[in-house]
Amino acid sequence: MLEEKTILITGATKGIGRALVSRLETHNTLRFALVARSSELLGELKAHLQSQGHECEVFVGDVAAEPFVTSTVQHCVERFGSIDILVNNAGIGRFGEVEQYSLSEWQQLFDTNVTGTFLFSREVVPHMKQQGRGQIVIVASDVSKRVFEGGSAYCATKFAQDAFSMALRKEVRRFGIKVSTIFPGLVDTSFHAQPQGDPAHQGWLRAHDVADAIFYVLNTPSHVVIDEVMLHPLIQEY
């Protein structure tokens, strides 16, 4: 399902995004467009993919900056001729009691987690409609479906991502565009207070577990759409 296609991944240099690139790089004809904030990490990733024979473009910027998103998508279309898959993976977390949040922290969470998802999706949809096909994957969280103490702002962004994806799915299905949402539980990445690999993360999902789930979603036949995937480590009660 992935041969001769172009995939755009946000948050591509770390965690789930980086694991997904590793999972996909065995598909020799897949073209990569990668978005992140670190020019150094993106440069290293581009060099690696090109050494494997892939076409690759990288874009350094803020997923919530409209001019950056617009120019990134336009450049991808001009460079590769299409955008077949978008993976909205970029995300951040801030946690604490509600009175501890500043307005800027609240806005930063919504900018990255929600506005970034909206902007990239909005920009690729017209191209996918013109192609008569396309796939958008949104990496949300299991807290799109539940809440926890100290997570009011973060949970709100993930509920918003879920609502956006459900409405978008209804809008674009008739144009041959699939929208799938991934809801991971606890994942051992640098996203958390403890570093990746910390003993406190024993038994958690690994980034490659989530990447495998996304890979499965991307490889369904053209007549099949997987609307949602929820996955947890066995040790986590939900």
Please outline the helices and strands.
Blueprint: E1 6-10, H1 15-24, E2 31-36, H2 39-51, E3 56-60, H3 66-80, E4 85-88, H4 103-131, E5 134-139, H5 152-172, E6 177-184, E7 187-188, E8 205-206, H6 207-218, E9 228-231
Parallel strand pairs: 1-2, 1-4, 2-3, 4-5, 5-6, 6-9, 7-8
Quick rundown:
With 238 residues, the chain is of the alpha/beta class. The chain is built from six helices and nine strands, in the order βαβαβαβαβαβββαβ.
Description of the molecule:
It is a single chain. The protein has one domain: NAD(P)-binding Rossmann-like Domain (Rossmann fold, 3-Layer(aba) Sandwich), CATH 3.40.50. It is built from six helices and nine strands. It has helices at 15-24, 39-51, 66-80, 103-131, 152-172, 207-218, and strands at residues 6-10, 31-36, 56-60, 85-88, 134-139, 177-184, 187-188, 205-206, 228-231. A seven-stranded parallel beta sheet has the order 3-2-1-4-5-6-9, with helices on both faces. A two-stranded parallel sheet has the order 7-8. β2, α2 and β3 form a beta-alpha-beta unit. It is globular, with a radius of gyration of 17 Å. The model has no long low-confidence stretch (mean pLDDT 96).
